[in-house]
Amino acid sequence: MFNRTNEIKVLRDPIHGYIHVEYQVIWDCINSREFQRLHRIHQLGGDFQVYHTAEHSRFAHSLGVYEIVRRMISEIPSICESIDEFERIQVLCAALLHDLGHGPFSHFFEKITHRNHEEITVDLIMDPNTEVHKCLIKAHQDLPLKVAMIIEHRHEKEVLNQIISSQLDADRMDYLLRDAYETGTSYGTFDLERILRTIRVKDEKLCIKESGMHSVEDYIMARYHMYWQVYLHPDAKSYEILIELFFKRYKEIDEIIDVFEIFREGHIITNEEFILMDECRMFYGFQQALFSKDAILRDFATRILDRHLFGWIEDPSIEEEKTVLNRIENKEYYFFKTRSSSKAYLPYQEKDDKQTIWILTQKNELKPLSQCSEIVKALLKMKAQTKMRIYFSK
């Protein structure tokens, strides 16, 4: 038996109403320094520079994922019947802690450190010196490893992997609803309640009753629109490019800003250094760079802090690109070309069994979503688009 809190803890949430915590290990993990750090990490990278209310954190999202998983394992009979209490604890902890390894400015941080956030998450969970590891091992000596296995998609109970990471997982369901709400857009809305009412488990696969198929269609389209309208917004990309170019310049000059020294080539960032690196620290470093002797570094620090974004042209003609290039003196830093492919963000793809949403038909058979939905069948025929943009100083 796992220890329960002296009463059910509740945290108010704009998406789920309340987050409910009844296990002590969950409450302990929430109060660990590694999880509290997520208060200081924006959920949406550079999008808060485009959608001014998108100030929500990885902390809020992680609690939201936890709450969806808590409901899944409590309200869906076929899931309840297929897992024991220890497995419930494992998947709840994995839901809560799945984003521990995110650095400042979300996925963009991975470009600077050359490390995947899931890899860092597992390192933090397995490090005996972290508070979150101590919270987990206090509850059960095997819990850190089991949680890490779910995050790495290699748990022996496949349904636990699917609940956290699949085409229809709790992570996606929370971030679509939360990001739509926080950005003031409607693109990411779908009927979460209907999906939760129609989720089932059959043959160790997470699936949806045929009667819930239309809600899943809405969910798929919500994901597609959120990527192109919010997550891939060109101005958000412009902000991230400024940060990328700032660090490119910083690594090339002989100048020390203490908080950024861990980003020098060859330096291996320790878990302790990572825990201390949040967006507050990054912005402090940018403020320090305002006094740099290097004019380019000062300029990028100013642009980042005061939102002086690069301009951009989508799919420019040869003449447009030439015109821009001719008026820019330092092309290495003030001209940037990107290509965005929709291949990774097509509404839905059925690459293999694990990347398929399964429909439980009225005959109690499992069929791929594309065989049941005419809409999805048409979506699978969509071709990837590639958009080229040039970014430049205005």
From TrEMBL:
Supply the alphabetized keyword list. Answer: Hydrolase
Q: Name one GO molecular function term.
A: dGTPase activity
- What biological process terms from GO does the record include? dGTP catabolic process
* CDD domains found in the cross-reference section: HDc
Q: Which SUPFAM superfamilies match?
A: HD-domain/PDEase-like
* Pfam families linked to this entry: HD (PF01966), HD_assoc_2 (PF19276)
**Which PANTHER family does this chain map to?**
DEOXYNUCLEOSIDE TRIPHOSPHATE TRIPHOSPHOHYDROLASE (PTHR11373), DEOXYNUCLEOSIDE TRIPHOSPHATE TRIPHOSPHOHYDROLASE SAMHD1 (PTHR11373:SF4)
Protein name stated in the entry:
Phosphohydrolase
Organism, as annotated: Faecalitalea cylindroides
